[in-house]
Design goal:
This protein has 220 residues and is an alpha+beta fold. It is built from 5 helices and 13 strands. The strands form 2 sheets. The protein has an 11-stranded antiparallel sheet with strand order 6-5-4-3-2-1-11-10-9-8-7.
């Protein structure tokens, strides 16, 4: 995400960029303890829950460190596709086609793209690789909540993402992803919360393309 700070100078833009650069709501977390303090299979359960999502839509709110909040609809389709459709007050779009992650600012007609492997959102898009390899359970003091911190200690510039799941019989694998918090290398924190989850709907691959504001064409 080179040059993101130069490109995205508006407060909302910075908040969105921080989410992509990416911890968990402090109300759910306390300092980490050894994994042995938890059920042995909780990390595997979290991975299975993410892998069990074929398609998902959920309403989201995204709040930056200053309390500024934007909202929209998240669409996820495995493998590797995700779309953050912000409401009309935020003329931006974040979309992944499975290979690269793109942020489009329609107001200033700018596009920024980078490989998924360089984004902590890879934990959502490729959970077996990222969560299994880089994930660490955190103590939540609540048996119905599972929190997984995902970070590559060899690449701190990629930031940290902490995924928070709540047990739910209606969700794949019995766990529902309810939030995550983005923490980048400059300690810019952004919280994303999900609600009104819907699973298993038909989603066209065209949902993960975008209208390029620099041209009249549609790019993947």
């Amino acid at each position: 995400m080179n040059n993101l700070k130069q490109i995205f100078s508006k407060p909302v833009s910075v908040a969105i960029a921080a989410t992509l650069a990416v911890g968990a709501p402090t109300a759910l977390l306390v300092p980490a303890e050894p994994v042995s303090a938890y059920a042995a299979g909780d990390l595997d359960k979290a991975v299975a829950a993410l892998r069990g999502i074929s398609t998902m839509q959920a309403d989201f709110t995204q709040t930056d460190r200053n309390g500024q909040t934007v909202a929209g609809v998240l669409t996820l389709k495995r493998p590797g596709r995700i779309r953050f459709q912000y409401d009309k007050s935020t003329p931006m779009l974040v979309v992944s086609n499975g290979k690269s992650l793109t942020l489009i600012d329609y107001e200033v007609k700018q596009v920024q793209r980078w490989p998924i492997k360089n984004s902590p959102l890879g934990a959502l898009l490729d959970p077996e690789r990222d969560v299994k390899k880089y994930g660490r359970l955190q103590n939540t003091s609540n048996p119905d909540v599972i929190s997984v911190e995902v970070k590559d200690t060899k690449k701190p510039e990629f930031g940290v993402i902490t995924l928070v799941f709540v047990k739910s019989a209606s969700a794949p694998g019995g766990l529902q992803l309810v939030s995550w918090v983005a923490l980048d290398s400059q300690n810019q924190r952004t919280t994303v919360r999900l609600r009104n989850h819907r699973y298993g709907m038909k989603v066209s691959d065209r949902a993960f393309t975008f209208k390029d504001p620099r041209t009249s064409s549609r790019r993947k």
